[in-house]
């Protein structure tokens, strides 16, 4: 199933490259090619999870691969409303192919407790929302700068959609980081006999939760100007990326 998923990603990638010079992509073909790639990838993940009886991956490779495919799925869903996103289908397809490759060096999870699965899935959705929030803020700032100089970019999304998206994503990121800590606390209570352990990953995640709590509540009380809010959201995405890639569990 994983090999088939890679094949569909490569197919959509080469179709996008071949037709890009014509200025018009076969959107329907690329859309369904990436959709089939996602279906086979998630079928592989669910098969592994069902066989293990838990979240299927134990190391960073499998988690990042699942995160990448989850982001591709979200972009495919968004493209139903904004077909312009499919203009970046070559990038999406290549990113999806690399995400699939990360399943190869991944290791199966040794933990069978459902709280561990909920903890990991919450973290997955938290990072997804954090990264999409940063992208929405980046594109919003870029679009506003272009409009200010009366230079309309060739690729753009509705600015109101970007404003709505960045606010929605930080709220969801805060919710899912909250759930990550809650489920993690209950899981460590069962596994280690206490609700908190001084693990670097958990400590940094707690700091991220505090950061997003501050940004969300400042937004609610209108304590930040729009550009300040976007800058904070982009910084949150950067901090989330640091936590994902460079902070490791020690337990």
Helix content bin? over 70%
Gyration radius (Cα, Å) is 19 Å
Put simply, the count of helices is 8
Broad shape: flat
Distance between the termini: 32 Å
Largest sheet: none
The mean pLDDT is: 88
Structural class: mainly alpha
Residues in β-strands, percent: under 5%
Number of strands: 0
Structural account:
The protein has 251 residues and is mainly alpha-helical. It has helices at residues 2-20, 27-52, 60-79, 89-101, 114-148, 159-192, 200-220, 226-246. The two termini are 32 Å apart.
Give a brief outline of the structure.
The chain is mostly helical and 251 residues long.
Task: Name the descriptors.
mainly alpha, 8 helices
């Amino acid at each position: 199933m994983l090999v088939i998923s890679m094949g569909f990603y490569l197919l959509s990638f080469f179709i996008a490259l071949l037709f890009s010079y014509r200025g018009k992509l076969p959107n329907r073909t690329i859309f369904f090619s990436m959709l089939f790639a996602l279906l086979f990838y998630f079928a592989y993940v669910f098969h592994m999870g069902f066989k293990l009886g838990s979240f299927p991956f134990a190391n960073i490779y499998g988690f990042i691969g699942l995160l990448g495919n989850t982001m591709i799925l979200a972009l495919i869903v968004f493209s139903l409303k904004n077909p312009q996103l499919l203009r970046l289908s070559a990038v999406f397809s290549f990113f999806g192919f690399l995400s699939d490759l990360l399943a190869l060096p991944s290791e199966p999870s040794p933990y069978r407790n459902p709280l561990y699965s909920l903890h990991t899935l919450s973290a997955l959705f938290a990072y997804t929302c954090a990264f999409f929030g940063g992208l929405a803020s980046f594109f919003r700032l870029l679009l506003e700068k272009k409009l200010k100089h009366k230079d309309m970019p060739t690729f753009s999304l509705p600015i109101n959609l970007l404003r709505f998206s960045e606010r929605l994503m930080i709220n969801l990121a805060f919710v899912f980081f909250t759930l990550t800590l809650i489920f993690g606390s209950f899981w460590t209570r069962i596994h280690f006999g206490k609700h908190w352990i001084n693990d670097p990953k958990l400590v940094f995640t707690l700091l991220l939760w505090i950061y997003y709590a501050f940004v969300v509540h400042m937004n609610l009380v209108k304590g930040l100007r729009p550009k300040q809010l976007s800058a904070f959201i982009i910084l949150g995405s950067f901090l989330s990326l640091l936590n994902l890639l460079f902070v490791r569990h020690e337990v």
